[in-house]
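URGENT: need a sanity check before tomorrow's submission.

F., can you look over the Chromosome partitioning protein, ParB family record below? I want to be sure the sequence and structure line up before it goes out.
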Amino acid sequence: MSKRRIFDIDFPEDVPESAPAGEPPREHRRGPMAAAITENAEALRARQEAEARIRAENDRLAHEHVRLKKAGLITDLVPIDAIRTDKLTRDRKPGRDTDLDELKASIREVGLSNPIRVEADGQGGYELIQGYRRLTAYRELYEETGEDRFATIPAGLVAHGEALETLYRRMVDENLVRRDVSFAEMAQLVLAYARDPETKAETVDEALTALFGSASRQKRSYIRHFVTVIEALGSHLKFPEAIPRALGLQLEKRISHEPGAAARIRAALTASFAATAEAELEVLKAQAQPPRAPAPASPRPTARPTGKTTFRQQVRGGSVRCLAAEGRIEMRTDRDFSAVERQRLEAAVAAFFRTLDEA
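Structure tokens as predicted:
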């Protein structure tokens, strides 16, 4: 049987078709498979480019979202019952704010123009950072009216996990522009911050710098003086927020420079049973005055010796009690000398002095 021999014949891949004379050569025609592969490759490149653009835009939006969130510029309607107010110690006096009714009236008429700021706690709730009065107004309005529009409050969402020092500083910086925050309230906040184990401040001065570093040096000095007053009088003060600056400085001066002054002021506050801020201020004003120096004693005349001699002398008819002192001599007895003639009395007195002079 004969064997067939196989030969490899190479045909040119691109053989241009001959074109009639006078016509340009025809374009090379690709097969259907090659055209499909080319189209798929182009579609894949377009899809990859689109996906890259989308990822870049998502990254940009994510970074912008984080930036806005950190700045508290992303707002949402947050349920008022999902907000807690116990993370930060508030620099507000206890009790209801007397100006809250005006704020509520404004919210009723025009709504809330400045959202509060909250931090998500990671458990579906929020911690209040700024806006205690605004949140209180919304809660009172919802309780009074039951309207759904007061069940949620506009809130800027602060990024979760910010340092506690930063959150305190946010609150303080907002409240520094308020005119009704007293030096006593600021001093109480400094003490609370220094005592909070979650903060880095170990002393009152460190807390003062951390919270009120942007305030003027003089204002920080005033706050520091009030810290001394609050520390010294403590719970004996019922209305510390009512203490004006000048009175607080006077009290600090007495407490810092007079031993026992703090104890005396505390005792006076306890004894007064002051039930109003005005009554307590009267007690503090009296205690702030420095003790009066005793009036100088008027000079006394030089004292002369004031010796005296007393004795009893037995005479006819009884006993005579005698007292002899400077400038006088007395003799007392039961005898009535008014019945004795004057001449005899004169003679007796003359004889008395003659006897004394003879000695």
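My own read: The mean pLDDT is 77. The beta strands are 75-79, 83-84, 116-120, 126-130, 152-158, 308-315, 318-325, 328-332. If you see anything odd, call me.
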